[in-house]
Amino acid sequence: FMALLSASCGSSAQKSPSGNIRAEVFADKEGLSYSVTHDGRTIIDTSAMGVTIDGTELFRDAVLRPAGTRKINETYSVTGRKAVSENRCNEYLFDVTHRPSGYTYQLQTRLYDDGFAYRFILPGDGKRIVNGEAAQWRPPHRSRVWFAERNSGWKLLTYAGEWISTTADSLHIVSRQGPVQTMPLLYQTPDEYVMITEAALYGYSGMRLRAEAGASLRADFTEQEGFELSGDIVTPWRVTIIARDLDALVNTDIITSLNPAPDPELFADTSWIVPGRSLWSWWSGIDGRFMTLEGEKRVIDTASSLGIEYSTIDDGWEERPDKWKFLQELTGYAESRGVGLFVWRHWEKLNDPADDYRQMRGFLDSVAAVGIKGVKVDFMNGEGIRQIDFNTHLLKNAARRRLLVNLHGCQKPTGEIRTYPNEITREGVRGIELNRITANYEKRMRDEGHAPNPNR
Q1: Is the C-alpha dihedral spanning 424, 429, 435, 437 positive or negative?
Q2: Is the confidence at residue 454, as pLDDT, over 80?
């Protein structure tokens, strides 16, 4: 249920349902800021917040007025995660007026017993440029931070880094690739774990974090000069998760709870959404029979004998002159063996927005027609606005055709699995494919008489 509470006029103090998490938001001529405590301990010291649109820093010289609060207490399910998830928090709404222009927008915050989140809702018309955000986090200095390191140009393109740690006040100098880090960042204090990330990333560029001296973090975006949006602008939620231990961290529901519920029409029937494991012939090469009917059928046989639900027809199938006949024969064979098929494609072959992504829709129609159960889309390699908009259109169009989606070479998850339950998985760890890539690279270097680069 959701119940309205009375607005607390003149006060920005906020608390979670149990009162263990507390936050305050402030406004003065310098800008908007916030702070967060847990059981009386400062978790995020006074930190900036706000958005710059069309060159105007809307958080400078602003007036903040409470506009209402409500309690949220609901349960929901997320496919493949756990039987019941809980969205239980106190939500606070503030009107923010930028004095110089008179423009008014809203700040929305939510306090859970294991975290704090905020976002901005900025009404408007026509084309607008988001130049950046003042978003800042100032976590405890005396803490250890875990971050994903990949000492190569791939660091900010995929989430295949190796998770290592450093002291919070050295994060800005620890990486050879510079001070910008991917989300999430996980801080370990003597009393709790603190994770910094974002949720509900739709129609907006994905945020990275620029580490600064003094353990501070600042918002950073792929589009350094800004990105164009139209009409009303709703930022993703800026999230601070606070967990007493790793079990509580893994089981938090904050990220999915900050996402909208699934469209009741698009997902009126979800019986076709069946999570499962998949074999993957690309990794092994199947003794030279990769992407042959005989070889892929043997992989399907293996999946069937092991009770594995899927097999993935990866990069290479489109090079066959009989590619659609090839897929149709494989799907028929797989169905007879109780196995579903995923098929791979490079995202740039689908990422033409013309005519409401006609290119994408045509491809999805074709794979659905031959009996494919899902698509593996690859090489987005970033989280700029182009990639985010593409992913949302892919998930919607796939759902309309009852197709599952495996996102690969993509940005971090921000809870999309609640809104689009047909997203079965996305690449988010340093997986075994890198073992093969690294082994092939090192062999090639040795064959050519070179020393392999250990930072690749």
Answers
A1: positive
A2: no
pTM above 0.70, yes or no: yes
* Token pair in block for residue 287: 């003794």
Residues 143-187 have pLDDT tens digits of 999 999 988 888 998 888 899 999 999 999 999 999 999 999 999
Contacts of 451 (CB under 8 A, 6+ apart): 445
Instruction: Record the tokens describing residue 288, joined without a space.
Output: 């030279």
Hunting for tokens 């294991």 — which residue is that? 114
Between vectors from CA 401 to CA 396 and to CA 407, what angle results, nearest 5°?
55
**Residue 89 corresponds to which tokens in the numbers above?**
């928090």
**209 alpha-carbon distance from chain centroid:** 14
Using CA atoms, how far apart are residues 328 and 287, in angstroms rounded to an integer? 23
Note the pLDDT of residue 17: 98
> What residues pair up with 92 in beta bridges, in sequence order?
69, 109
- The answer for residues whose C-beta is within 8 angstroms of residue 84's C-beta and 6 or more apart is 75, 76, 77
β-pairing, 144-149 vs 62-78, is unpaired
Three-state DSSP at 307 gives coil
How are the residues of the chain apportioned to helix, strand and coil, as percentages rounded to the nearest 5?
25, 40, 40
Q: Name the strands in the sheet holding 207-211, side by side, starting at the edge strand that comes first in the sequence.
A: 136-137, 217-221, 207-211, 180-181
Q: Cα separation of 15 and 327, whole Å?
A: 55
Backbone angle region of 455, left / alpha / beta, with phi > 0 → left and psi within -120 to 50 → alpha: alpha
CB-based contacts of 264, cutoff 8 Å, min separation 6:
none
Type of residue found at 314: D
pLDDT at 288: 87
Residue of 124, 118, 120 whose CA lies nearest to 54: 124
Residue pair 296/281 in contact by the 8 Å Cβ criterion: yes
Query: CA-based diameter of the chain, in Å?
Result: 73
- Token digits for 162? 């190796």
β-partners of residue 118 are 109, 238
Query: Rounded to an integer, what distance in angstroms lies between the CA atom of residue 361 and that of residue 350?
Result: 8
Alpha-carbon distances, residue 32 vs 27, 208, 337 (angstroms)? 5, 20, 60
Cis peptide before 413 (omega within 30 of 0): no
How far is Cα 108 from Cα 95, in angstroms, rounded to an integer?
9
